[in-house]
Each structure stands twice: as structure tokens, then as C-alpha cells.
Specification:
Blueprint (H helix, E strand, L loop, with lengths): L46 H9 L4 H34 L2 H12 L3 H34 L7 H33 L4 H28 L2 E3 L3 H13 L7 E4 L10 E4 L6 E5 H6 L3 H16 L2 H35 L10 H14 L1 H23 L2 H11 L9 H7 L5 H13 L8
Parallel strand pairs: 2-4
Antiparallel strand pairs: 1-2, 3-4
Helix pairs in contact: 1-15, 2-4, 2-11, 3-4, 4-5, 5-6, 6-10, 7-9, 9-12, 9-13, 10-11, 12-15, 13-15
Length: 438
């Protein structure tokens, strides 16, 4: 679901891709006739051989480039984690965080506003301190591998938009609300904090497609009836309540293809980026991608993921309480942190949350990867475009390693690998050779 969502990071939480259960297949049967045997894998079509044929379409240079990009991302996970801990340690160890709190307290006597003023400083300072890694990872590295189409000015403009949104949503809403809970429930703050975080997450999922994403990209109605008609027909057939299909201009930022069916509480919308329209090898590839995205909606991945992350957040906030109490007992006086309700302790909370999610990476990846596989199966059954699905997997292989080892996929992949997605598609094709679309 980038992901999730990601700009839900603006709320300090996570961009969630969403999960659910596998769907059952139905078998049509004419009354009074002997049921025909299910189409079996025949000697005329070998799914494994077909998978290898698709993989062979990537040149050795393309494969090496994709592997290098994706494997480099493993190191970025580690460096980003350590870099974030370093920023937190700098803010605490230098007492800069305490001085930021003191400044906020001198400016007003209202606690809510004090928290908001501290949050504004914190967002701006962490943006500046994190800028060197961000500009390397999100701009220079993307251009090095040919994945970005954005000028530095355009990229910087998007970064500043993100900061502005964070100042409004996190600085004026999320963090003041969270610290109000910390003040009002000093003994059970970890539980109520998890509830607030979950409510903010749901709010982000609901408002992002309508109010956040259009700040970064222009959304227009898809006009081509040859595409619009089949997509809306597929949506109606699967109970998706929308009469609109939008296209957004992602090509001004990236060369990647993507689409989504996102939103909650009446904000649901179907959207695909212009790269998908421009670069898809066939209409079947577009239908396969849209079938996958609709699978997330039909399988209730949003609501099921909210329940999953409710558990994750409760455990995470319990860890925050344990870690915060021990860290401040040892270093709190040196850092100038008065307690958990003191905004000066926010870098410590952020660092502990970072540790928690870093350790949980394989678990979260497995959860998301499972739901993506479920959406793949749904998309195959709904759109009936196995070759379109395989073509899409090849396009995603421009920046995702196609053939990882099993442990590597378990740890680092939040989607099934390209090889496994193509193999799934070819197995589906083998079982439906007699009834596929022309």
C-alpha cells in the first residue's frame, strides 16, 4: 500500500502497507454435466521454465545494477539507524534539547504551546542534522542508479514541503497531544500513548490521499476510456466504491511505476502514476497492477493492519517506558531531562522507538510481504493477467533484487522477490491455460 504509504512519517510513526487473508477460488460448473478436471500443469507449459525465460530478459548489467542498488539499501538501513541514534545522542548529550525546552518555556506559560514550540525546534534541528544522509540517500544515490528524474531544486522543494507539513501535523497536533497524555497519565502513559499513536495513524491513512499527496503531485482524472473502463469494471466487480480513476505525475520525481487504492471513511480513491501508463509493456500489465492494488482493499488489509499495528504500538510503548526510565535514571540529570512528560526527552523517546523498530524489521517485513503475496494472488484471480504481472515484476526488478536467498528475503524484503512473483504468476497461468484473456 510507498507505501504505504511513505509520508505518514510526518506524524513520526510508520508508512503502512496493509495485510489480510487469502481469498478462495470458485469453480463454475454447468448443471447436468460431468465436472471437467481442473487444468493441470501440462508438458506444453512449464512454470519454472517460463519463469527463467522472464528472468533471462534482464541483461547481466541490469541484474548487477539492481542487486547493487538493493543490497546497498541493507547498509542504508544500518547507517540510517546509527545516524539517527547519533543525532539523538547529540541533542541530549550537548543539552541542546534541554535548552530548546527552556526557550519554549520562556516564550509562554501554556504547556500545550510550550510543547508545540519545542516540537517546531526539534523538527527543524533534526531536519538540518539529518540532511547530509538524506541528500545522499534520496537524491544523489537515486540519480546514480537512474531512478530519479528530479532536479536538485525540485527535490529540495519537496523536502521543504515535507518539513512544513511536519511542523503543522507533528508540531501542532501529534506531539502536543502525546505530551498531554504523558502529563495526564504519568503511570499509564505508555498505554494511552499507544492509543493516541494509533488514532494518529488512522487519521494519517484517511487524510493522506486527499490532502497530503496532492501537495506533492498533481492528480487528474484518467481520460483514456480503453483503460478507465476496464479499471472501473474491475473495481465494481470487487465492491470498491468509487467512480474515479486518477493519474498523478510521479514522473517529475522518479522513473518508478506505482499505483494504489487508498483511503478510509469515504476517502477511498484509485490512483496510478503516469510512469505506469508510459512504461507498461501492455494494457495487461496495467490491469495486473491495478488488480493487485484492489486486492489490498477487498482483503481489508487496512483494517487488519490497524489491528496488527495496535499490538505493535502497545508493545513498543511498553518498551519505551522500560527504556526511558532506565536511561533517565542514569543520564537524565546530565541531559537536563526532568521526566517522561518533559519535551526535552523527545530525542530519547525517538531513539528508543528507532531501536524497537530496527530489531522488529524482519517481523514487519514478513507481515507486509505476506499481505503483498495475498494481493498478488487476488490480482491474478481478478485481472487474469499472469504475463502482465510478470512484466510488472520485471519493471520492479530495476530497483529490487530479483533472486535473493531465503534468509535475505525474510530479513530485508517487504514484498515477495521478483523471482517468486513471476513463478507465482506462471503457476497460475499453467492452471488456467484454457480460459485466459487473449
Amino acid at each position: 500500500m510507498k507505501t504505504v504509504i511513505s509520508r505518514a512519517v510526518l506524524l513520526g510513526l510508520l508508512i503502512l502497507t496493509l495485510a489480510g487473508a487469502a481469498i478462495a477460488q470458485t469453480t463454475a460448473q454447468t448443471a447436468g454435466q460431468t465436472p471437467a478436471p481442473a487444468p493441470a500443469t501440462t508438458p506444453h507449459f512449464d512454470p519454472q521454465a517460463a519463469t527463467e525465460a522472464y528472468l533471462a530478459r534482464m541483461t547481466p548489467e541490469q541484474k548487477a545494477r539492481s542487486d547493487a542498488y538493493f543490497e546497498g539499501g541493507y547498509w542504508l538501513i544500518l547507517w540510517g539507524f546509527l545516524y539517527g541514534l547519533g543525532v539523538a545522542w547529540l541533542l541530549l548529550g550537548s543539552r541542546l534539547s534541554a535548552r530548546m525546552r527552556d526557550l519554549a518555556e520562556r516564550m509562554t506559560r501554556f504547556r500545550w504551546l510550550q510543547t508545540s514550540l519545542y516540537a517546531v525546534q526539534y523538527i527543524l534541528v533534526t531536519f538540518v542534522l539529518s540532511y547530509p544522509l538524506s541528500v545522499y540517500a534520496d537524491f544523489f544515490r537515486e540519480h546514480r542508479y537512474g531512478l530519479s528524474s528530479q532536479s536538485f531544486g525540485g527535490w529540495m522543494g519537496d523536502q521543504l514541503k515535507g518539513v512544513a507539513i511536519a511542523l503543522v501535523l507533528a508540531g501542532c497536533l501529534a506531539l502536543p497531544l502525546l505530551y498531554w497524555v504523558l502529563r495526564k497519565a504519568p503511570r499509564t502513559w505508555w498505554l494511552w500513548g499507544a492509543v493516541v499513536a494509533l488514532l494518529l495513524l488512522v487519521l494519517g491513512i484517511a487524510v493522506a490521499p486527499v490532502f497530503i499527496e496532492p501537495i506533492f503531485n498533481k492528480y487528474t482524472e484518467l481520460q483514456d476510456p480503453a483503460l478507465r473502463g476496464p479499471i472501473l469494471s474491475l473495481a465494481r466487480a470487487n465492491g470498491i466504491p468509487t467512480d474515479h480513476v486518477y493519474v498523478f505525475d510521479a514522473s517529475k520525481q522518479t522513473n518508478r511505476m506505482s499505483a494504489n487504492v487508498a483511503g478510509l471513511f469515504g476517502t477511498t480513491r484509485i490512483a496510478l502514476n503516469d510512469n505506469l501508463l508510459r512504461r507498461a509493456s501492455s494494457r495487461g500489465e496495467i490491469e495486473a497492477v491495478m488488480g493487485h492494488e484492489m486486492g489490498h482493499y477487498v482483503l481489508h488489509h487496512v483494517s487488519k493492519s490497524i489491528l496488527f499495528f495496535a499490538v505493535v504500538l502497545v508493545i513498543g510503548f511498553a518498551f519505551l517506558r522500560w527504556g526511558f526510565d532506565r536511561a533517565t535514571a542514569r543520564w537524565g540529570e546530565r541531559w537536563g531531562v526532568r521526566g517522561v512528560a518533559d519535551p526535552a526527552g523527545l530525542p530519547l523517546l525517538a531513539a528508543l522507538f528507532s531501536i524497537y523498530f530496527f530489531v522488529l524489521t524482519p517481523v514487519l517485513n514478513t507481515y507486509i510481504r505476506t499481505q503483498e503475496a495475498e494481493a498478488d494472488i487476488f490480482g491474478l484471480n481478478a485481472a487474469r493477467q499472469p504475463d502482465g504481472m510478470a512484466e510488472a515484476a520485471l519493471h520492479l526488478g530495476e530497483y529490487r533484487k530479483m533472486s535473493p536467498g531465503p534468509v535475505e528475503e525474510w530479513m530485508f524484503f517487504d514484498h515477495p522477490s521478483g523471482r517468486n512473483r513471476i513463478l507465482m504468476s506462471m503457476r497460475w497461468k499453467a492452471e488456467h491455460l484454457g480460459d485466459l484473456k487473449p
